[in-house]
Amino acid sequence: MRATVIHGPNDIRIEQVPDAVVQRPTDAVVRVVSACICGSDLWAYRGVAARVPGQRIGHEFLGIVEEVGAEVTGFARGDFVVAPFVWSDGTCDHCREGLHTSCPQGGFWGEVGSDGGQGEAVRVPFADGTLVGLPKEAAGEEKLLPALLALSDVMSTGHHAAVTAGVRPGSTVAVVGDGAVGLCGVLAAQRLGAGRIIALGRHEARTAIARTFGATDVVAERGADAVEAVKALTGGQGAHAVLEAVGTEESMRTAISIARDGGAVGYVGVPHGGPAGVDIAQMFDRNVSLRGGVAPARAYIPELLPDVLSGAIDPGLVFDRTVGLDGVPEGYRAMDERTALKVRIAF
Length: 347
Prior knowledge:
- By secondary structure, the chain is of the alpha/beta class.
- It has two domains: 2-153 and 296-346, Medium-chain alcohol dehydrogenases, catalytic domain (Quinone Oxidoreductase, Chain A, domain 1), CATH 3.90.180; 155-292, Rossmann fold.
- The chain contains twelve helices and 18 strands.
- Helix 5 packs across helix 11 (297-310), helix 6 runs parallel beside helix 7 (204-213) and helix 8 (223-233) runs parallel beside helix 9 (249-258).
């Protein structure tokens, strides 16, 4: 079968790899229908995150179950499924508590020795604990596929930021970052009833999506200027809940500074580029809380899925380019050069 592999910085290739097969009785093999490129994949593409030459890549996909192991009871051949970006056994203490990303037997797609999501098929460990079933008829609804695909990572991650930041009905929310996760954070805040949503971003095409998702205000400034702008919009107080979706020292510093006293920051941006910029004294003096981390998408997908299926939310709008498998290397270049927000791969 064919799949995406990374050989080094700026070196993404489509190559023949061993077929995905059931190796353990709890496995399933999923034929991929739709996948995508994540902003976090770019750190490997840019050489910031180390990868072994020839390693698989990609962690977001929808597909059709092709084969199941003898111990899989929840799925059968022909089922339409979405895979969260981390596999998990579904039975450990962490999984039962809704923190599937801490499952001792879990892992990330594309780890050495595992299949990546940007390929024709994927071996799914612990299929019963990992996969989420979708209506079979949805597999043929092309307009719905992007929104369903977003559940695998970016929508669930944006939701995690909103939940950990304590977004509640009527609250004022600020979102730092105008990438796909930040935009989904805007949508998540709107879904949870935020009264005002301030999106921090300077790319007009992206902030237009933010407004579609529910942003009431847009702040294009960065750093101290952004802090001043948010304070001006909020009567000098800042936001009850701040969603940090970038992962840099500057973005974390901004997020903490624009939270109002007693507020909270939900951080989901993958940390990179140096120290986190957390000023404990500033947080202590103003009672600002900091929560977040890797989103347990497996816990959130069942909650978010009905709203996607009903059309109440459409996170699929973050996909602004679709390519076939052969177009994946160009998709990476487009996202790296910011000529594409998020690239979907159709099979």
